[in-house]
């Protein structure tokens, strides 16, 4: 207990020696260190030390320093033409092992803590987790443009509505007509997006034309605005027809974590070949008139089936 009291007043300059000891086989002796880092006054200073003074990103091995001890990250090192950006002296090729070891001893919260992630990670595994963190922001689901907007679901819904002028619908059934006057021009892949709001969730209905091998096709599919695990709680069906024929598709919506292109290329949706589409359209085959109807429903939740998300269950 007295150790804990003592260590709570240490400054960052003494952290390195403790870290070295931690690496000896007495981890239990200093089990309170990492806790201390994450909420004591040392957190800020050690964390500041690990921030590259040039690009302000967190530094990962190899961390470099100049002859005067100024640190910088390996990315910046390649850009500064062998001059220390801080003191302008020749940089050389010196590793800052002490700082690398300090970093190893740190435990930090996931960067998406403000989005709800409660996890804490050793410094060097933090990045790995953040790449797959369930709370990481989503990319904009709008297809056909290189939109770089990221955010949580409510923010993306507002973005789709206000910036992409996407149609918003409430309800779990839909009935959409796609009309195209020049159906021979499939190469200029057309795509449409409609957002549905039901069961307190948002779903993206994509409709588009593209070339599948030699054949022009139309495809409709649904994506869930949320992660994969939640997506599995829902199913949907799509139906298109006319002239006494119909095609149906039934499946699970894919999460918008899967890119629009990935879903399209896996053909996970209702695919209508152009000849069939024109047949459905009736008339003189000069105009495409497709009526796509669909329904979204919630699957019966199986308590044994692991629908429980650990992050939300604690
Ligand atoms: Zn840097
Ligand atoms: Zn320097
Ligand atoms: Zn996280
Ligand atoms: Zn966007």
UniProtKB/TrEMBL annotation:
InterPro entries: 7-in-absentia-prot_TRAF-dom, E3_ubiquitin-ligase_SINA, Sina-like_RING, TRAF-like, Znf_RING, Znf_RING/FYVE/PHD, Znf_SIAH
Reactions catalysed, as given in the entry: S-ubiquitinyl-[E2 ubiquitin-conjugating enzyme]-L-cysteine + [acceptor protein]-L-lysine = [E2 ubiquitin-conjugating enzyme]-L-cysteine + N(6)-ubiquitinyl-[acceptor protein]-L-lysine
Span list, region Disordered: 1-38
GO biological process: protein ubiquitination; ubiquitin-dependent protein catabolic process
Domain SIAH-type: 105-165
Every RING-type domain range: 52-88
Name of the protein described by the UniProt record: RING-type E3 ubiquitin transferase
Lineage: Eukaryota, Viridiplantae, Streptophyta, Embryophyta, Tracheophyta
